[in-house]
User: Which sequence fits this backbone?
């Protein structure tokens, strides 16, 4: 049986940050746990020294395997921290048998997302373990996330729950990083397969945006690269709709330039919305941009705007559904991926703290449940048991004991 321990802090010294987090997380665990084999999942904002994080963890937990990624902010049971040097960990300690399995790759992009994800999934399958859920953390710049999901499902089937997110930076949309095998990667991905038979997962997901104006049509594309919209260069066309210069960098546009696609009708009720959102974080010099999923010619896209009432009311409805799904089971741990634009880029500290409280309290009921979340670029979350990739959502993954 897997045991979970979490902590987060804003210590500016990177080595001290990871060591203090691990000490705080594992402090109540039975000794000599620091010498035990374990998996450490870490989320770090972009200002930390990542090599020092890896080295610091190895010093006090020499048998630990560290994986993780960068983000725009960390969310733990201590609350949210979006400073340039914030760090959170989830330490996962096995019982008598190792019931987690890890693989990674160092170059996942739009054109090879299916192949790289399938290769990692095959490596997990080769362990022979009865894997019942997969956590996926990947580069957030130009991955085709839907193709990655298809790669995993080609090995494990469509019934395997996939959760996690894509890494981010401090909303500049320049570079994000991943940690695996003692290395720092820039276009990498980590896949964790869990095979603890006592665990299952319940997920909740919601965004609070509505489409505005009329849709426009993608008239030329290759995979997840959108080349033309309405027969014009894609990014300049989109910027013209926002009254912005055609060479505007995508980073500052993330809070205001969300794209929406229609959801199939079967999923709209569970989502409280007819549309699923997409974020753009990479633009080429020729004016094409990259969607986080494949975007075939003929796709209709809407610009969206945030609705603060919908964010709060929708979050409350989502949490009621999630609590009902959990029922009377014990929550062993919570992983959480939130859109970077739902942090300080959108809300002031008071409103943001209220949102965090509204999502944590119904699940934890005041108890110190291990919790590790990040403000990332995108979220892997299922709707009605279908694995999907989202942007601009709050996505909560509760691991519960059967």
Assistant:
């Amino acid at each position: 049986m897997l045991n979970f321990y979490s902590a987060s802090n804003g210590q500016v010294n990177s080595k001290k940050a990871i060591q203090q987090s691990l000490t705080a997380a594992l402090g109540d665990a039975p000794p000599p746990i620091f010498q035990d084999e374990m998996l450490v999942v870490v989320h770090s904002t972009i200002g930390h020294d990542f090599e020092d994080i890896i080295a610091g963890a190895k010093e006090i937990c020499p048998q630990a395997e560290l994986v993780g990624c960068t983000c725009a902010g960390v969310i733990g049971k201590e609350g949210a921290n979006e400073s340039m040097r914030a760090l959170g960990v989830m330490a996962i300690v096995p019982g008598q048998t190792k019931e987690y399995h890890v693989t990674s790759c160092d170059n996942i992009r739009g054109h090879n997302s299916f192949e790289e994800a399938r290769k990692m999934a095959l490596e997990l399958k080769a362990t022979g373990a009865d894997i019942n859920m997969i956590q996926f953390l990947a580069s957030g710049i130009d991955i085709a996330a839907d193709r990655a999901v298809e790669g995993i499902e080609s090995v494990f089937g469509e019934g395997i729950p996939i959760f996690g997110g894509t890494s981010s930076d401090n909303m500049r949309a320049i570079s994000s990083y991943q940690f695996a095998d003692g290395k720092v990667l820039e276009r990498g991905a980590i896949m964790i397969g869990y095979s603890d038979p006592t665990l299952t997962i319940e997920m909740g997901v919601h965004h609070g945006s509505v489409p505005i104006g009329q849709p426009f049509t993608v008239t030329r594309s290759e995979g997840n690269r959108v080349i033309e919209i309405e027969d014009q260069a894609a990014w300049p066309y989109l910027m013209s709709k926002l009254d912005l210069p055609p060479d505007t960098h995508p980073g500052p546009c993330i809070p205001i330039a969300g794209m929406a696609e229609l959801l199939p009708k079967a999923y709209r009720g569970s989502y409280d919305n007819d549309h699923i959102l997409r974020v753009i974080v990479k633009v080429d010099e020729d004016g094409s941009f990259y969607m986080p999923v494949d975007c075939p010619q003929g796709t209709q896209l809407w610009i969206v705007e945030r609705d603060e009432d919908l964010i709060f009311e929708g979050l409350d409805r989502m949490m009621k559904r999630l609590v009902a799904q959990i029922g009377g089971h014990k929550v062993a741990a919570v992983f959480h991926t939130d859109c970077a634009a739902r942090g300080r880029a959108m809300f002031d500290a008071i409103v943001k703290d209220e949102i965090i409280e509204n999502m944590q309290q119904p699940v934890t009921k005041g108890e110190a449940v291990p919790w590790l979340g990040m403000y990332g670029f995108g979220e892997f979350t299922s709707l009605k048991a279908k694995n999907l990739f989202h942007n601009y959502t709050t996505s909560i993954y509760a691991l519960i004991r059967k």
The mean pLDDT is 93. The first strand starts at residue 3 and ends at 9. DSSP finds nine helices and 25 strands in the chain. The two ends are 12 Å apart (CA to CA).
